Amino acid sequence: MNREQISKIAHAEHPIKSPLDDDSVHRLLQRGLPRGDERVLDLGCGGGEWLLRALATRPDLHAEGVDVSADALAQAAAAALDRGVQDRLVLHHQKAEDFVSAEPFDVVLSFGATHAFGGLLPTLAAARKHLAPGGRVLVGEGFWDRPPSPEAVEMLGNFTDLATTVDRVVADGWTPVDGHVSTRRELDDYEWACWGSLATWALDHPADVDSAHALATATTRRSEWLRGYRDTWGFVSLVLRPTPGRA
């Protein structure tokens, strides 16, 4: 079972692949899409859940998603058809960093995909290339809520604290106009959902050749979370606009 298959099963009950509950996603979309008729781009869209939710509640919205996973894009296309928004969604099977569009976008999203660009600031640089004047970027990023152990850094990456993360974004030419720091409940619910879903799949498919591997992975990841980074790692979602004169 490869990493993509594991991720698909793990996120079956939590399609927003970030520690955000439905109310938080709704609020971020409200702040990021104030008109309701924007052109929206998701860099690293996966199964397209952010775009699907935006399209379902905004009949004048048009969206495009980019991802390297053909399976995830097929899932997004099927979900768009099921929700009746397929005519307003275009999906691109390619690396997000290679995507080029003839027209800019009013809003650019990137959640759970900053690693594809090499970090938060390179992700924002990529988003800026696609952004129309007056546009907004919605991005999610991890941070260290308190000093992490070396093992936690090895697991998740070399993040900074929340204040430093926001300072770096501001110094890079962006103005936060809204944001959300995931609560302990959101962080815990996300981890329980992921590794619980993977463990459930393994228990429900005992004869599958991948069952033992899936169960072992769920057990390992749950332990890494509880023992390695639960008390130190956080997640921030930012709504950003370019700072005048700082492009």
UniProtKB/TrEMBL annotation:
Methyltransferase type domain span: 41-137
Record-linked SUPFAM superfamilies: S-adenosyl-L-methionine-dependent methyltransferases
Cytoplasm is among the record's keywords: no
Keywords assigned: Methyltransferase, Transferase
UniProt-recorded Gene Ontology molecular function terms: methyltransferase activity
Keyword Transferase set for record: yes
One record GO biological process: methylation
PANTHER family: METHYLTRANSFERASE, SAM-DEPENDENT METHYLTRANSFERASE
Protein name per Swiss-Prot or TrEMBL: Class I SAM-dependent methyltransferase
Lineage, broadest ranks: Bacteria, Bacillati, Actinomycetota, Actinomycetes, Kitasatosporales
